[in-house]
Design a protein that fits this description.
By secondary structure, the protein is of the alpha/beta class. Helices cover about 20% and strands about 30% of the residues. Helix 1 runs antiparallel to helix 2. The longest helix has 17 residues.
Length: about 130
């Protein structure tokens, strides 16, 4: 599973963090990673701690926040995903179809008016 940042993905100038090139097994591992984060009681976790994620041109830290802000960055390299616990639980639900069978589909992992989208796509496309 690879993690990268893509700038200006559409005509509105939106950016994207993308998790891609993964198998069914890695989908299951990622879903469990998110669940374990929520169960841990910690307020943040760096995705680079997961041995199955290869960061390419950015880092991403999941953070529990009071409001759903989405993914933010001050430097275009280090990103934080600031969501409420309930938004991370919705994310787990969105990951479920990828954990049942191999697919070429994709899913945006939150629906927030934010300049940075979060794409989960085995093929890397959308």
């Amino acid at each position: 599973m690879r993690l990268d940042y893509i700038k200006n993905t559409n005509e509105y100038g939106d950016d994207m963090i993308r998790l891609y090139e993964f198998s069914l097994l890695e989908s299951i591992k990622f879903k469990q990673f998110v669940q374990d984060f929520l169960d841990s009681g910690e307020n943040q976790i760096n995705l680079s701690k997961a041995d199955f994620i290869e960061p390419r041109n950015c880092t991403l830290v999941f953070c529990i926040s009071e409001e759903d802000e989405g993914i933010v960055s001050t430097d275009g390299i280090n990103f934080s995903c600031n969501l409420t616990r309930s938004a991370y639980l919705r994310m787990i639900t969105l990951l479920e179809p990828f954990c049942k069978r191999e697919t070429s589909g994709y899913q945006f992992l939150y629906d927030i008016d934010s300049p940075t989208d979060f794409l989960f796509s085995p093929a890397g496309s959308w």
